[in-house]
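Form P-L/3: holo structure prediction, ligand NG1.
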Amino acid sequence: MANPAIDETFISRFGASPGGYCQAPGRINLIGEHLDYNGLPVLPMTIDRRVRVAYGPGEGGRIRIENLDARFAPAQFVNAPSIPESGQGAWDNYARAVVRELNAHFAAGDFPGLHMVVEATLPDGAGLGSSSALMVAVALAYLDRLGIRIDKDISRFELSGLLARAERGTGIAGGGMDQTIALAGDEVHAVKIDFNPPRIERIPCLGSHRFVVCNSMVEARKTGAARHLYNEGPAACRVARALVERYLQAEWDPGIELRDLGDLWFGPLCLTHEEAGKVFDKAIPAEPLGFEDAARRIGCSVAELRATLPRDFPEPARGFRLRAMVRHVRTEFRRVEWMRDALIGGDAEGAGESMTASHKSCASDYGVSCPELDALVRAALEAGAIGSRMTGAGFGGCTISLVEEEMTGRFVQGMADSYYGGAPPPNAILPVRAAPGAGYC
Ligand code: NG1
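OUTPUT (holo model):
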């Protein structure tokens, strides 16, 4: 589909028209926050905001990428068996990570050049999955250049797994939610994603209601200041996993091994929620744990413990609040199931209750909210939302609120007047709809 701005830029930079276009949508996570990297289910929905890439062949194995948004400077690198990183936080690292990962997977013999121009209607640094949408769109462009067809030569699940790994290479120890929903979502459903084993279930999402995104205007750029904040969740859960494994080996069976906390519920153990709760109570101490204490309890050295944590992760000043954090993991998993049932049953009140409870748990147990997100949730409930919560990684970014369709206008006005003092910045309040998953366009 032609688009004058993207085409003009493409022609002026690269001297030819684009050979193709592809797009990948952003997402809201309805519920199931900070669960994906624990192998536990999440329930996101694509939104009608996306990243679009116009692309065409490049000469001499050179990959060039430009962005219509002037905040992102033009970048280029040579496609080769080894592709170095740009500086920490540089946006072209996402493209580098994609090309590196796909080269390794497909053992590409030659290393073709590619020209790309990116255009986004999806805000970045807002917890709406923009980094993964960019990576998915770049991947589709590069796969086309390699002559590899999605759904034929590679499945969407397989591709999302590769891209999740590639994104972890950029320094964020995240899970696979964003890549999977960008590739597997559709314009009608939310999607419950299970990782263990991988499975998706399409969930109807209350036709008579709308999800409204509100941006706290606090930017949470995971490749910048928010990187260590984000990584504290995965780091704490890895420490908790090791403590639980150690406890189970000592008390139940020396042969027990856990890949992640999700293995308590799935795989050979298959515990009930109640049983898993009891195990956590026994295995996880109530007091915060520093690296030294944690290593001693796990039975390893501090260096060995560090080696299991995300790259250059610093010791949290007050230690890991593990009890509260695993309580979030355990109760959030339950809320995913309740939310799924509520959506299928058309129970908006039930869905809203789970959302608001999830926000409280993200804030007080997992520690990933911030005063602005809490204020947005309060304002949303006062403005008539049935439920409201932060969405995505947290530390800033957006909330989502569940609102009756016919109340949407009044809700938007209420939020504009309250949180934004009558002057909301452009696109700060977005009633969203589900949108098609990634593809060529
Ligand atoms: P966002 O909101 O896009 O930063 C991050 C992770 C997800 C998931 C959520 C929290 C990446 C690419 N995204 O999303 O995997 O862990 O936080 O639920 O790491």
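COMMENT: The longest helix spans residues 226-251.
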